[in-house]
Specification:
- Two copies of one chain form a homodimer.
- With about 120 residues, chain A is mainly beta.
- The first copy, chain A, has no helices and eleven strands.
- In chain A, the strands form two sheets. In chain A, strands 2-3-4-11-6-9 form a six-stranded antiparallel sheet, with no helix packed on it. A four-stranded antiparallel sheet of chain A has the order 5-10-7-8, with no helix packed on it.
């Protein structure tokens, strides 16, 4: 089955208490396309200054894979500068956040897998 | 935890019997970082003419998310032209293949989830 991501764009203001509005391209139609093994698989787009706020994972992990841009990733309390090509894993029981601190659009893949 | 994908590049010739050599950037260190719920989460890079050969999924699905380029996707026997932004899902029990038929590099995310 093939479909275009154009069909599945949503915008979310203040994601997890973050700044601005994140564009989310939903790559799967909910958990059933992940056989109930995960919660989301999204292409995320953040303009400069936009962020996903600090939040905890309980019962799952979340993996961010940075496609474009630069930012600051809160890695369970430690701030790390991240760029395209970096993989950020928030394990079950940890906290994380991500802000686009650069001048370009930040794009990343987000995947949540149940623990 | 943050790491660069530079650490995890591998090249695979004739992937699934396909043509040429696919560059695979392994975004996770095996199934354990997917809590055993999936088998791989890769950033794939194929030069023009390179392909992943036709193969079946048995016990899992595979999702391709096209980041750049154009190609032909074999969707369980039907050939579909695909481009950046398209999502291709091969469900458990189905077959699929992907070839870069364009003049640019084709990049895509591949995710395998156990059924």
């Amino acid at each position: 089955m093939v479909r275009t991501s154009e069909e599945q764009k949503v915008r979310k203001a203040n994601a997890r208490g973050g700044a601005g509005e994140v564009e989310m391209r939903l790559l799967v139609n909910g958990a059933e396309e992940l056989y109930g093994k995960g919660k989301l698989f999204n292409h995320m787009v953040m303009e400069p200054g936009v962020s996903v706020g600090l939040h905890a994972h309980d019962g799952d992990n979340e993996i961010y894979y940075i496609l474009t841009g630069t930012g600051e990733y809160n890695d369970n309390g430690t701030i790390v500068t991240v760029k395209a090509g970096d993989v950020c894993i928030c394990n079950d029981g940890e906290i994380h956040a991500l802000i686009n601190t650069g001048s370009e659009v930040m794009e990343f893949i987000a995947l949540v897998v149940n623990s």
